[in-house]
Design brief:
alpha/beta; Molybdenum Cofactor Biosythetic Enzyme, Chain A; Alpha-Beta Plaits; Maf protein; 3 domains; 16 helices; 43% helix; 25% strand; globular
């Protein structure tokens, strides 16, 4: 098993202006190909810092993958640094130049400038990896038996080079073996209590299978990972242990797939041939966003009414003025009337209605920030529940959404058992 380091370069990553999705994508792609990433490092556009990181990663990994800093502007220093690091000089690569000229003539429909032409300059000590999706080629170096591969930071360009060049190269040079996973999702039990629940199972796991806890928003994913060379044995062992794990957490199991809550709801409603709509106040359409972000959402999701103001609740959902005046918008009575109005307006099988105080202000002693009422149901039966979240606005919204979806999932499961 070889050790791989991923180095991402750019000041924008360190100040949070750009989220580093490249290293996450690379790690996932490498994992599927049988390779394990040992380290991920982000570094700014500093010559000394990049040089130091390359030395550090060379000391602990066999393969160092680098993204970023290959553009045509002055702050893109990766290429000249690598040229000096490996003791080479910049030369023009004819194939890379033809690619630049083709892109500008046929794709961009713009003249090629001298700055663009310099994109085809590469260190004479590298193997050039042609970039079909952009002007900056990838570059492969070797030093002291270690492989360095520099890739552009533009995500689709990096991904194309990883799939077409890097992963095939690594698979040819090394025998990665097999990495396999099984993942399930639980809800309604904390990480520590879950660990107590499955302690005996975890202690009995074979040495070649590891268990990981991945908590997020009141949910905990459990992932079993096995590594080895005998694929048949790995898959059989994983399947047997995963079956035991599902049995151990059955009371809290949402899905035995590596998927979020909304995907589990989608699968359930597709199986039931049922549809869903939402009436959202405090979440502002976030539940609808989660549902429609998935392919296949049209099979189960009809739409949403975002009734943020009291007037919209009255006009679109038929919430009574006296209910809002007497009970307030964040109340059991209001969400119940929101749900009933939603089901009348959309004619879907199931509905979700939410109203709450997300913060940072707007709360009081009776209804502090984080107070949320959720109602789910159909035209015959409804379930309502109050929650008290205690986090910032965004997390309160996310927790409201996942709890609403879970309430709907439970309601649909119960309804399915009765039919």
């Amino acid at each position: 098993m070889i050790d791989i380091s991923i180095v991402t370069i750019g000041d924008e990553l360190l100040i949070g202006q750009v989220i580093d999705t490249n290293s996450a994508w690379m790690a996932q792609a490498l994992n599927k190909a049988g390779f394990a990433v040992k380290r991920r490092v982000a570094v700014g556009d500093s010559w000394d810092d990049i040089w130091k990181v390359l030395d550090e990663e060379r000391a602990c990994s066999s393969v160092i993958l680098i993204t970023g800093g290959l553009g045509p502007t002055a702050d893109d220093i990766t290429k000249p640094l690598l040229c000096e690091y490996f003791g080479g000089k910049l030369v023009q690569d004819i194939a890379a130049l033809k690619n630049v000229e083709y892109l500008f003539a046929q794709i961009f429909n713009r003249p090629v400038t001298e700055r663009n032409v310099r994109q085809a300059d590469v260190p004479d000590v590298c193997t050039v990896l042609q970039n079909k999706g952009g002007t900056a080629p990838g570059m492969q170096f070797e030093k002291d038996g270690k492989i360095f591969i520099s890739l552009p930071g533009v995500p689709h360009e990096m991904q194309g080079l990883m799939q077409d060049e890097v992963i095939p190269l690594l698979q040819k040079r090394f025998s990665p073996g097999i990495i396999a996973h099984r993942t399930l999702l639980t809800f309604g039990i904390g990480e520590s209590m879950l660990a107590d629940l499955i302690e005996d199972f975890e202690n009995a796991l074979p040495k070649d299978i590891k268990l990981a806890y991945l908590p997020n928003h009141g949910m905990v994913r459990l992932r079993l990972t096995a590594r080895g060379t005998d694929e048949a044995y790995i898959q059989q062992s994983l399947d047997e242990n995963f079956t035991q794990l599902k049995t151990a957490v059955e009371a809290f199991l949402v899905t035995d797939k590596d998927e979020p809550m909304e995907a589990a709801v989608r699968s359930l409603l597709i199986a039931q041939q049922k549809t869903l709509s939402t009436a959202e106040s405090c979440t502002g359409g976030y539940i609808a966003h989660l549902l429609t972000a998935m392919p296949g959402a049209s099979a189960i999701f009809e739409g949403s009414i975002v009734s943020y103001s009291n007037q919209m609740k009255q006009n679109l959902l038929g919430v009574k003025a006296e209910t809002l005046e007497k009970e307030g918008a964040v109340s059991e009575a209001s969400v119940n009337e929101m749900l009933q109005g939603l089901l009348r307006a959309t004619n879907t099988n199931y509905g979700i209605a939410v109203s709450g105080i997300m913060g940072p202000d707007g709360g009081n002693a009776e209804k502090p920030v984080g107070t949320v009422w959720i109602a789910v149901g159909d035209k015959t039966n409804q379930v309502r529940k109050r929650f008290h979240f205690r986090f910032n606005r965004q997390r309160n919204i996310e927790l409201t959404a996942v709890n609403a979806l879970n309430m709907l999932r439970q309601f649909a499961l119960d309804a399915g058992k009765k039919n």
